[in-house]
Write a structure and sequence with these properties.
- 47% of the residues lie in helices and 12% in strands.
- With 322 residues, it is an alpha/beta fold.
- It has an eight-stranded mixed sheet, sandwiched between helices.
- Helix 9 (186-214) runs antiparallel to helix 14 (307-319).
- The longest helix is centred in the middle third of the chain and has 29 residues, at 186-214.
- It is elongated and about 75 Å long.
Length: 322
């Protein structure tokens, strides 16, 4: 059972995750190309490493190394380097938003050297330090069990949320906020679908606020105009309605600051997972019209300004950006 871990990548997610782990009494070795990021966590109790070789030296085997790096080449290169530095019995965890199909080749590359590999979708954004992180885990069940203490420290725990029904698996940890979802790729696949659902939810909120905002447009005859306070309506919906969520909380906070959201761009970016989900849907011939509409709306936002797009930008800024 791992009671120490190395975290590679100390940005807005990785740095906060280290602080949460330290708060749970888990020893953390940290590495980032930014020396200031490393030193900031030294003050919190982490042990900085100057390079990947020192990461391995500072951890007692069997080691656990968790990556919170941008998806793509930097993650591929780092895992390739770790495959030459780590030893049999160690485990590598990719907690970034990598494409789920890459996990198959990574598992094979590392398993040849006796190193375990887990892909973990991490949801929680910039508020995860206090709220905890929802962890969607793929890979070897045995390797996942060895990381139980780390997962328990990062996850939110059951809190006041009761289970929706009886367990389908007596060993399930879903109500604790982390779950082994399946073999290699399962964690990143489930996180990809999670983000696709998020896109659709965000789009629905954005269009609703756009509709209310448009009802007060000065081009309408005065007798047909409704001056709706969308910030107060967002606050109202948070209480007793059937559409509350953390995303609605973020919308209410942004609208309370400025009902016109003037500080937010109408251009809404995407980080890739929505496109991957659409590709997976096409491969499986599974209709996902809500996701497709949400993605096309983001593409259209690059060309036109609207209240809906500023709401989307506000929500992305609130949770850290997908």
């Amino acid at each position: 059972m791992h009671d120490s871990i190395a975290m590679l990548g100390l940005g807005r997610m990785g740095g906060n995750m280290v602080q949460r782990l330290l708060g749970a009494g888990i020893d953390c070795v940290v590495y980032d190309r930014d020396e200031m990021a490393r030193e900031a966590l030294r003050e919190a109790g982490a042990r900085p490493a100057a390079d990947l070789s020192e990461v391995a030296r500072l951890l007692a085997p069997p080691r656990a190394v968790w990556l919170m790096l941008p998806a793509g080449e930097v993650t591929r290169e780092t895992i390739s380097q770790l495959s030459l530095i780590l030893e049999p019995g160690d485990v590598v965890v990719d907690g970034g938003n990598s494409h789920w199909q890459e996990d198959w080749s990574r598992r094979e590359m590392l398993s040849v050297r006796g190193i375990d590999y887990l892909d973990v979708g991490v949801s929680g954004g910039v508020l995860g330090l206090d709220r905890g992180y929802c962890l969607m885990i793929g890979g070897s069940k045995q390797a996942a069990v060895s990381m139980t203490r780390v997962f328990e420290a990062l996850a939110p725990g059951q809190g006041e949320t009761p289970r929706a029904g009886p367990k389908s698996d007596a060993a399930s940890t879903a109500e604790m906020g982390y779950l082994h979802c399946g073999g290699a790729g399962a964690g990143h696949f489930v996180k990809m679908v999670h983000n696709a659902i998020e896109y659709g939810m965000m789009q629905a909120y954005a269009e609703g606020f756009e509709l209310m905002h448009a009802r007060g447009d000065s081009s309408l005859p005065e007798e047909r105009r409704l001056e709706l306070d969308v910030g107060e309506i967002a606050e109202l919906w948070r209480r007793g309605s059937v559409i509350p969520s953390w995303l609605l909380d973020l919308a209410a906070e942004a609208l309370a600051d400025d009902g016109e959201l003037r500080d937010f761009s109408h251009k809404v970016a995407d980080s890739g997972e929505g496109r991957w989900a659409m590709q997976a849907a096409l491969e499986l011939a599974t209709p996902t019209p809500a996701l497709a509409a949400a993605m096309y709306a983001r593409f259209a936002s690059q060309r036109a300004s609207s209240m809906a797009n500023r709401v989307l930008s506000a929500l992305r800024a609130g949770f850290g950006g997908h």
